[in-house]
């Protein structure tokens, strides 16, 4: 109950401190209140197949699933999140699927979809991001898209051109890109990396390189997380530890 009261007080303080000029409010990012879409790579390379020159006992998608399962429960407490997957289903097809529009407490439904994916298709990441932007009603509302990819666009679209288009037509849409294990593979060229970096840069987003599960956890927290809420949780944890330490020393007061 005390934590809920603290959060309510914080939101009230943010509202009071918000600029009254509509133009100024339009220019400011609004973390924790913007809806978000995860654009998830389920292309064939995420299965770690030999056709991509990768041999692993556990497919790449396993690490991403574990990372998401660690971060989504806390993130979805404060932000509505949805999911688009690209590449699942039939082999070598340019499939894009809207799995979930942004909803509150979305961790469980998102993980249900991600856990059942069969990575097999091509990489229509540009189409997937464009659809995510439309779901967020980007022309009228601010929003966040987090694109996870382990490779280049392979369905004849231009990610950089889309970034420029979204910047010109959107009301404060940010596209972050997480590049998973995109280093040291001959099938992923520097030009393709530059394409997705450009998509992020054009929309004011981040490009984050991730090589393992821990990198992915940090990347998802950085792009989807709510810094204000994370700070409050950290303060709460510190207060709890101090209370326990004081109690063990015989100096605790209160319940």
Instruction: Count all strands and give the number.
Output: 6
Mean pLDDT: 79
Topology as a string of helices (H) and strands (E): HHEHEEHHEHEHEHH
| Helix content bin | 40-55%
The CA-CA distance between the termini, in Å, is 14 Å
Counting helices, strands and paired strands, the structural category is: alpha/beta
Q: Helical element count?
A: 9
β-sheet strand percentage: 15-25%
| Sheet with the most strands: spatial strand order | 3-2-1-4-5-6
Low-confidence runs of at least 5 consecutive residues: 3-8, 10-31, 49-55, 186-190, 228-240, 251-255
Computed over alpha carbons, the radius of gyration is 20 Å
The shape, in one word, is globular
Summarize the biggest pleated sheet. Answer: 6 strands, mixed
Summarize the topology.
Layout (H helix, E strand, L loop, with lengths): L1 H16 L4 H6 L7 E7 L18 H16 L5 E6 L9 E8 L3 H9 L9 H11 L7 E7 L9 H11 L3 E8 L9 H13 L4 E4 L2 H12 L2 H23 L6
Parallel strand pairs: 1-2, 1-4, 4-5, 5-6
Antiparallel strand pairs: 2-3
What distinguishing features does this structure have?
globular; alpha/beta; disordered N terminus
């Amino acid at each position: 109950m005390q934590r809920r009261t603290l959060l309510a007080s914080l939101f009230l303080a943010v509202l009071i401190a918000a600029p009254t000029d509509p133009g100024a409010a339009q220019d400011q990012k609004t973390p924790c209140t913007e809806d978000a879409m995860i654009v998830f790579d389920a292309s064939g390379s995420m299965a770690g197949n030999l056709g991509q020159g990768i041999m692993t006992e556990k497919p790449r998608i396993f690490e991403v699933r574990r990372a998401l399962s660690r971060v989504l429960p806390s993130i979805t407490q404060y932000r509505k999140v949805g999911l688009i997957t690209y590449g699942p289903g039939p082999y070598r097809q340019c499939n894009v699927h809207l799995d979930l529009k942004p909803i509150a407490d979305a961790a469980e439904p998102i993980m249900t979809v991600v856990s059942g994916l069969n990575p097999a298709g091509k990489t229509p990441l540009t189409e997937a991001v464009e659809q995510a932007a439309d779901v967020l009603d980007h022309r009228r509302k601010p929003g966040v898209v987090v694109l996870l990819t382990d490779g280049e666009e392979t369905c004849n679209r231009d990610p950089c051109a889309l970034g420029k288009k979204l910047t010109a037509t959107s009301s404060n849409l940010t596209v972050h890109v997480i590049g998973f294990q995109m280093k040291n593979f001959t099938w992923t060229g520097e030009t393709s990396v530059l394409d997705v970096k450009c998509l992020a840069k054009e929309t004011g987003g981040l490009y984050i390189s991730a090589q393992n599960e821990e990198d992915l956890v940090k990347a998802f927290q950085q792009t989807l997380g709510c810094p204000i809420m994370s700070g409050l949780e950290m303060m709460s944890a510190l207060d709890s530890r101090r209370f326990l330490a004081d109690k063990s020393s015989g100096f605790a007061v209160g319940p």
